[in-house]
């Protein structure tokens, strides 16, 4: 092994030359459903000797990664203007941020980050305008800044806070408890990627989910904890591994179906605030959930969980739950592609008994419904921007909640008051939080960061363009006012297109140096997202995934044909599922883009399902194990579609070594094969790989690492699109 490592180091040592570090090829030949494939870089996956833990990092792969990282740092850190750009970005990213508060009695819990602080700090106020009191600063626990508070949940009486901490981006949160009055940590410490579901009403305990085995993402459990006891004694209400007995025993499903269900997103529990009822959902796909209800009063008495079926085999998601006595108010797209609010009698919960309270709208998607005292507040999305509307408990409209403009909105409510907090942001409107009284209609600004940019310098436009099959797709275009449509503007096109996730307007202060330098930023609302309900999502998943790539390519062509840019000044960007998007369009249309940023991506779609939690996503993409699904996966899988002798765009491919979602093997293999295949001059259009050794899928990074990442991406784009030569 040491000899192999030294051989690679000898071949790949970076000496300051412009060429990519060469990578050893060890071809692996295989046949899938009658088609032959050769994988020259299979060894970059890592150690695959244990099929249940594929892709363990080896010394050899680690050494290769160090060389690639060194090459990338040498390129990006020495580009002209890097230091000035990083200083400007630091100024923008050190601007403070604050979250909407969680209300418990007269206490208001929220997070805030200011200045050079690495991570957000948890605060509490007594009264909405009270004095801030620090409860938890992750930097005082870990001065490296790599420890992150992933979530927090105050108890109903506001005297305790449960919170989760993880380190270096692995998202494997450990639960802790803190006494609000004294600031003292309790003895509770529950490991296992924990998330708290709901407290008991008297704050003496809580329900939570965790993984039984951190190395097995399909080992979730739902448990109950009584404060003061050891978590090993916590009773288990249900486990994902019991799919055949607890959830589907009465259905007599075939073994292959049960095996499939055991590795979807699996089960979760939602508990009413009075701890009387629990709804259990089981994800059967990325857009389908089976539902049951359980009487928790009976469970507390007997220790036996009896599930009564609510819905089975329906397409659609559940987007929110609100309980009022024995009635469940549920926001769902089951039976309504654009969403509806239904009332469910929990004593008679069958789907046929559900009653519409807020029916489906044909021209808007229902994103969520929040309950205040005597009111519902619905968040609607129309043409990818959001509005808020109030309803009484019978579903009669009581008017809209005013917003500052067209953008993205959310609302934090509590069912014991009409007080609420509204958050709003748009491409040219910094995030603001307003304290409102839903009964009187009064509103006042509660928090707004002081950002050293002038949002009024940019124009925001929404256009519609025609995709390959004739579908009309919307796109936001943002740029400095007075832009000349001369077809020569440096432009970044961004997209996602998957998992029913919508791309709504957002505010990013770090884009303003891009706008100030004459850059254009465009966001395409691709199929596969949720902008137009379940039908829009369905049109971009499984065998229809190519629609997503066609939509993105059509957006790029529209920008070129309408005077914004041209292929020598156009770049694309996306992360995670959006990284798959970038990989697909770059391999399908390398002539259309000068550069690409491909972040934490899925790229080898013939093998992705074997790594980490990726079988969660088989309902979205399919699996090459299935002959029919293999056919369309093989047609677009970016890694397999790389061709020798093609001039590919410059690429910055990034990954996190601690990613527990998307394995970094995708980025490693793609970079190696691209470097070997492209005919582009690596001195001017390189394929760069950056694997962050202190990060995961992206969440939880401290400020310094986030500044570095944004500077990397922006200077790379400015270099490739010819902006570093401009005055």
Can you walk me through this structure?
- The protein is an alpha+beta fold.
- It has a domain at 22-46 and 59-91 and 457-720: Rossmann fold (3-Layer(aba) Sandwich).
- 21% of the residues lie in helices and 33% in strands.
- It has an eight-stranded mixed sheet, sandwiched between helices. Strands 3, 4, 5, 6 and 7 form a five-stranded antiparallel sheet that branches.
- A hairpin with a 6-residue loop joins β6 and β7.
- α1 (2-12) runs parallel beside α2 (59-76) and α10 (546-561) packs across α11.
- The two termini are 51 Å apart.
- Residues 1-17 have low confidence and may be disordered.
Q: Main traits of this protein?
A:
727 residues; alpha+beta; Rossmann fold; 33% strand; disordered N terminus
How would you sum up the global shape?
globular
Q: Report the radius of gyration as a whole number of Å.
A: 26 Å
CATH-defined superfamily of the domain at 22-46 and 59-91 and 457-720:
Alpha/Beta hydrolase fold, catalytic domain
Assigned CATH architecture of the domain at 22-46 and 59-91 and 457-720: 3-Layer(aba) Sandwich
Mean pLDDT: 95
Question: What is the class of the domain at 22-46 and 59-91 and 457-720 in the CATH system?
Answer: Alpha Beta
Strand content: 25-35%
Give the helices and strands, then pairings.
Elements lengths: L1 H11 L15 E5 L2 E5 L19 H18 L5 H12 L3 E2 L3 E3 L2 E7 L7 E6 L6 E4 L1 H4 L5 E8 L5 E8 L6 E6 L5 E6 L4 E5 L5 E7 L8 E7 L9 E4 L3 H5 L7 H7 L4 E6 L5 E9 L2 E8 H7 L4 E5 L6 E7 L2 E6 L7 E6 L9 E4 L6 E8 L2 E8 L2 E7 L5 E5 L6 E5 L6 E8 L2 E9 L5 E5 L10 E9 L5 E9 L10 E4 L17 H5 L3 E5 L8 H6 L7 H16 L8 E6 L1 H12 L6 E5 L18 H4 L5 H10 L1 H4 L8 E7 L8 H13 L9 E6 L10 H18 L7
Parallel strand pairs: 34-35, 34-36, 36-37, 37-38, 38-39
Antiparallel strand pairs: 1-2, 3-5, 4-5, 5-6, 6-7, 8-9, 9-10, 10-11, 12-13, 13-14, 14-15, 16-17, 17-18, 18-19, 20-21, 21-22, 22-23, 24-25, 25-26, 26-27, 28-29, 29-30, 30-31, 32-33, 33-35
């Amino acid at each position: 092994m040491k000899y192999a490592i030294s051989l690679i180091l000898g071949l790949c040592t970076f000496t300051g030359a412009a060429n990519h570090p060469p990578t050893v090829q060890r071809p692996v030949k295989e046949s899938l459903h009658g088609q032959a494939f050769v994988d020259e870089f299979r060894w970059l996956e890592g150690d695959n000797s244990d099929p249940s833990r594929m892709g363990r990092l080896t010394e050899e792969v680690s050494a290769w990664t160090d060389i690639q990282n060194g090459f990338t740092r040498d390129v990006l850190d020495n580009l002209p203007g890097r230091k000035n750009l990083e200083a400007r970005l630091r100024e923008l990213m050190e601007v403070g941020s604050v979250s909407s508060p969680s209300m418990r009695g007269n206490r208001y819990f929220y997070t805030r980050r200011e200045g050079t602080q690495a991570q957000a700090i948890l605060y509490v106020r007594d009264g909405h305008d009270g004095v801030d009191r620090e409860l938890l600063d992750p930097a005082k626990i870990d001065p490296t800044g790599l420890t992150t508070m992933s979530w927090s949940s105050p108890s109903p009486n506001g005297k305790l806070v449960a919170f989760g901490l993880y380190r270096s981006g692995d998202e494997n949160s450990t639960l802790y408890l803190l006494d609000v009055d004294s600031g003292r940590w309790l003895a509770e410490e529950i490991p296992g990627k924990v998330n708290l579901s709901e407290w008991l009403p008297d704050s003496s305990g809580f329900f939570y989910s965790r993984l039984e085995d951190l190395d097995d993402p399909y080992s979730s459990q739902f448990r109950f904890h009584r404060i003061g006891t050891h978590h090993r004694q916590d009773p288990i209400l249900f486990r994902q591994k019991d799919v055949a007995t607890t959830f589907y025993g009465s259905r007599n499903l075939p073994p292959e179906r049960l095996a499939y269900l055991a590795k979807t997103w699996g089960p979760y529990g939602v508990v009413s605030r009075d701890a009387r009822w629990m709804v259990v959902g089981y994800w059967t796909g990325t857009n389908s959930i089976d539902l049951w209800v359980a009487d928790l009063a009976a469970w507390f008495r007997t220790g036996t969980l009896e599930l009564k079926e609510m819905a089975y085999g329906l397409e659609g998601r559940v987007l929110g739950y609100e309980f009022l006595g024995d009635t469940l108010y549920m926001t769902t797209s089951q039976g309504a592609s654009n969403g509806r609010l239904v009332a469910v009698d929990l004593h008679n919960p069958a789907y046929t008994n559900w009653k519409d309270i807020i029916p489906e709208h044909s021209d808007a998607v229902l994103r969520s419904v929040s309950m205040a005292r005597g009111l519902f507040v619905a968040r609607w999305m129309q043409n990818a921007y959001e509005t808020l509307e109030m309803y009484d408990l019978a579903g009669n409209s009581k008017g809209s909640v005013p917003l500052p403009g067209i953008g993205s909105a959310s609302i934090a409510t509590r069912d014991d008051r009409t007080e609420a907090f509204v958050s709003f942001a748009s491409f040219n409107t910094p995030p603001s939080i307003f304290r409102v009284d839903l009964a009187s209609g009064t509103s006042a600004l509660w928090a707004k960061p002081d950002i050293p940019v002038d949002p009024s310098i940019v124009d925001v436009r929404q256009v519609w363009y025609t995709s390959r099959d004739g579908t009309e797709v919307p796109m936001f275009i943002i740029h400095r006012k007075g832009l000349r449509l001369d077809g020569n503007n440096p432009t970044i096109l961004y997209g996602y297109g998957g998992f029913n996730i919508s791309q709504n307007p957002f505010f990013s202060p770090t884009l303003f140096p891009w706008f100030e330098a004459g850059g254009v930023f465009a966001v395409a609302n691709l199929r596969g997202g949720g902008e137009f309900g379940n039908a829009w999502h369905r049109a971009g998943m499984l065998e229809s995934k190519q629609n997503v790539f066609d939509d993105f390519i059509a957006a790029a062509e529209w920008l070129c044909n309408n005077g914004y840019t041209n292929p020598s000044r156009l770049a694309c960007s996306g992360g995670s599922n959006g990284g798959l998007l970038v990989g697909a369009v770059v391999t399908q249309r390398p002539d259309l883009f000068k550069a690409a940023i491909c972040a934490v991506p899925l790229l080898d779609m013939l093998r992705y399902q074997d790594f980490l939690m990726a079988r969660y996503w088989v309902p979205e993409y399919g699996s090459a194990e299935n002959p029919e699904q293999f056919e369309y996966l093989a047609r677009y899988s970016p890694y397999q579609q790389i061709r020798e002798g093609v001039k590919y765009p410059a690429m910055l491919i990034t990954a996190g070594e601690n990613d527990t979602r998307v394995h970094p093997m995708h980025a490693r293999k793609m970079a190696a094969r691209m470097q070997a295949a492209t005919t582009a001059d690596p001195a001017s259009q390189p394929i760069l790989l950056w694997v962050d050794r202190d990060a995961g899928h992206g969440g939880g990074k401290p400020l310094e690492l986030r500044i570095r990442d944004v500077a990397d991406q922006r200077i790379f784009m400015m270099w490739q699109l010819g902006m570093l030569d401009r005055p």
